[in-house]
Design brief:
This protein has 119 residues and is mainly α. It has one domain. It has six helices and no strands. The chain is globular and about 45 Å long. Its main location: other. Keywords: Cell projection, Cilium. One of its GO terms (biological process) is non-motile cilium assembly. It comes from Formicarius rufipectus. It holds the Pfam family IFT57.
Length: 119
């Protein structure tokens, strides 16, 4: 229980404190998100996400190496995340309706989380 409270407190830090916390973890901590994004992209490429309906159906471009690591356009990034999540759930064998760009974000995330819990 205490560990959960500690994690929740870490997530609620202001950006200034987050930078200090990252510096305390070591010099490479600031780049960890970029490494995770590159790993994600490699895995998506192995699943052939570019050629399948994940991107084609929505006329989307392939992800850059740091697409989710840098906050550039939160609305577009959220929609891309939801589109990929829906595609992965469908690819795993569960029927899941692709979200539309103007769907309620809370409802979309709730649906994704419900499906993931069902796994």
């Amino acid at each position: 229980e205490e560990a959960g409270l500690g994690r929740r407190a870490e997530r609620e830090r202001p950006p200034e404190e987050e930078e200090v916390a990252a510096a305390e973890r070591g010099p490479g901590a600031a780049f960890h998100m970029f490494v995770l994004m590159e790993d994600l992209l490699d895995k998506l490429k192995l699943l052939n996400y570019e050629e399948e309906e994940a991107l084609r159906r929505h006329n989307m471009r392939p992800l850059s190496r740091h697409y989710f690591a840098l906050p550039t356009n939160p609305g577009e990034q959220f929609f891309m995340f939801c589109t990929l999540a829906a595609w992965l759930i469908t690819k795993a064998g569960r029927p899941f309706e692709q979200p539309q760009e103007y769907d309620d974000p809370n409802a979309v995330i709730s649906n994704v989380l419900s499906e993931l819990r069902a796994f």
